[in-house]
Design a protein that fits this description.
Layout lengths: L1 H17 L9 H9 L19 H11 L3 H9 L15 H9 L19 H11 L13 H7 L14 H12 L10 H7 L5 H20 L6 E20 L2 E20 L5 E10 L2 E10 L2 E6 L2 E6 L4 H15 L11 E9 L2 E8 L6 H16 L7 E16 L5 E19 L2 E20 L16 E5 L2 E6 L5
Antiparallel strand pairs: 1-2, 1-11, 2-3, 3-4, 4-5, 5-6, 7-8, 8-9, 9-10, 10-11, 12-13
Helix pairs in contact: 1-12, 2-8, 3-5, 4-5, 6-8, 11-12
């Protein structure tokens, strides 16, 4: 159990260092910003009803606004220039549905039904957004492949939404779309809506300022999109309480402890992906020495002297997608998908450097939930299966980052300050049940050693000494030496 907790702290630090985004979030701030420009409106009963699924009618209204055609739709419907054949569309949504139907953008679920009150799915809404950006399914992308295409353009992959797609999620994805480039590359969506007169420039100023400052940061870090080599120093003050049963013995304790880590993270994500993560330090009174290496479809892992390798060739695409998110998030290079999480972002000059200061909002508190999916099988194996049995809740009271860009346009330094409270319930069996509350004040420093083609991943001298780990769905069943069948 103690070994697991040590790995948990290591994982938390790695995740915080790499600034992972989350899907389990509350996007009230995004809804408020959208409401300020008339893009998102409350319900008749009051509030934004973010905790329920959007209907297809509501999605249709939002889509017409994203086309900048709300006034046009109302005028043409009133003059009967446009119409629709659907019997289930109410008066409020009728002009919007008629405009979409007339322009061939959206059809119904049958010849006479739009499915107005049916829930709108994440997949359907992302396709709507791609169309608003100028892309056409069947030409630029296939409907069934819309998720991956949208993610590449700066929108969330719909697969990250767990459970029902909510109005909360709709607000977040719409906010992202406003910062995405149009297909023709002429500008980003919100700027085009302002230029067309569909959105008031003054009302949109807080959003455009955020978008343009963040886009500038992304431009400086664009060369980090495929390769990165950073050195990390981290220190944390942790207050923890533990209650429950460990190995059949009652546990009730609390303590405050320092945690320190130093290490190096190297990633090259191309047709032959490579990775090296090495960390040393101390946590819970124990020395930590962890290493993870990815090469030729194999994951090599070391934890305080124990080592093994695992064939991950079949899971490689999924692993790469996760680490790509880690890489992009940690360098401020996440396209428009990061926008709903940003509270404030500013830039200033310091000598020949440009310094960006970014503060994340409360929606970022779901990052720990994404962490365990990203770290996947390697950490689960090291923790002896505990990671599969965790229920976590996180309250992130502060998360701020400072990015320093040199006069050559390259990102050279990142610092972070994170304050959070976490509660965790873990149950392995009747003799191992644990409830933990944890408050952590974390400071980190990332120095960029190299990026792009200059990155060379460093491996242990002799990878053949790592034994093969063999296991099934319930965990490892044997360790055999290399070459043994």
């Amino acid at each position: 159990m103690k070994r697991f907790l040590t790995i948990l702290f290591t994982t938390l630090l790695l995740t915080a260092a790499l600034c992972v985004s989350a899907s389990a979030s509350d996007f009230d701030a995004a809804a408020e910003d959208l409401a300020a420009i008339g893009m998102f409106r409350g319900t008749a009963s009051g509030g934004y009803a973010l905790d329920r699924a959007p209907t297809r009618s509501e999605a249709a209204i939002m889509l017409v606004r994203l086309y900048g055609a709300e006034e046009e739709a109302a005028a043409k419907y009133a003059s009967k220039e446009i119409t629709h054949p659907f019997t289930d569309v109410g008066g409020t949504a009728a002009p919007y549905v008629a405009w979409l139907y007339t322009n061939g953008i959206s059809n119904g679920v049958s010849e006479t039904a739009f499915g107005a009150s049916r829930p709108c799915t994440a997949q359907s809404y992302v396709v709507f957004l791609l169309r608003a950006l100028g892309y056409q399914d069947g030409q630029d992308f296939q409907y069934e492949d819309a998720a991956g295409f949208a993610a590449a353009k700066g929108l969330f992959d719909p697969s990250v939404f767990s459970g029902t797609f909510l109005r909360d999620d709709l607000a977040a994805v719409t906010y992202q779309a406003l910062g995405c480039d149009l297909k023709d590359g002429s500008t980003y969506l919100l700027d085009s809506l302002i230029k067309s007169g569909a959105v008031d420039a003054s009302a949109a100023k807080p959003i455009t300022s955020k978008i343009e400052t963040y886009r500038a940061l992304m431009a400086y870090s664009a060369n980090l999109g495929s390769a990165l080599d950073v050195h990390m120093d981290a220190k944390a003050e942790v207050a923890m309480s533990l209650t429950g049963v460990v190995d059949g013995e009652p546990l009730n304790q609390g303590e405050t402890m320092p945690i320190t880590y130093q290490g190096r993270i190297q990633m090259v994500l191309d047709e032959k992906p490579q990775m090296a993560v090495t960390m040393t330090g101390s946590a819970m009174g124990e020395s930590i020495d962890i290493g993870m290496w990815l090469k030729d479809g194999w994951m090599y892992s070391r934890q305080n002297g124990s080592s093994y390798k695992t064939d991950v060739s079949e899971e490689l695409d999924s692993i790469l997608a996760s680490y790509q998110e880690l890489l992009e998030a940690g360098t401020g290079q996440m396209s428009a998908s990061m926008l709903p999480f940003i509270d404030t972002i500013t830039s200033s000059r310091s000598g020949g450097d440009t310094v960006y200061t970014l503060a994340l909002n409360s929606a970022f508190g779901g990052m720990i939930h994404d962490l365990f999916g990203m770290m996947g099988g390697a950490l689960d194996t090291l923790s002896e299966g505990y990671l599969e049995n965790i229920n976590l809740s996180v309250d992130l009271s502060n998360c701020s980052y400072t990015y320093t860009v040199g006069s050559n346009g390259n990102l050279k330094h990142v610092t972070a300050g994170i304050e959070m409270d976490m509660s965790m319930d873990l149950e392995e069996d009747a003799e191992n049940q644990l409830a933990m509350s944890l408050g952590m004040d974390l400071e980190m420093d990332l120095a960029v050693n190299a990026s792009g083609s200059a990155v060379k991943v460093t491996y242990p001298a002799d990878l053949s000494q790592f034994p093969i780990l063999i296991g099934g769905a319930d965990g490892p069943t044997a360790i055999v030496s290399v070459g043994v069948v």
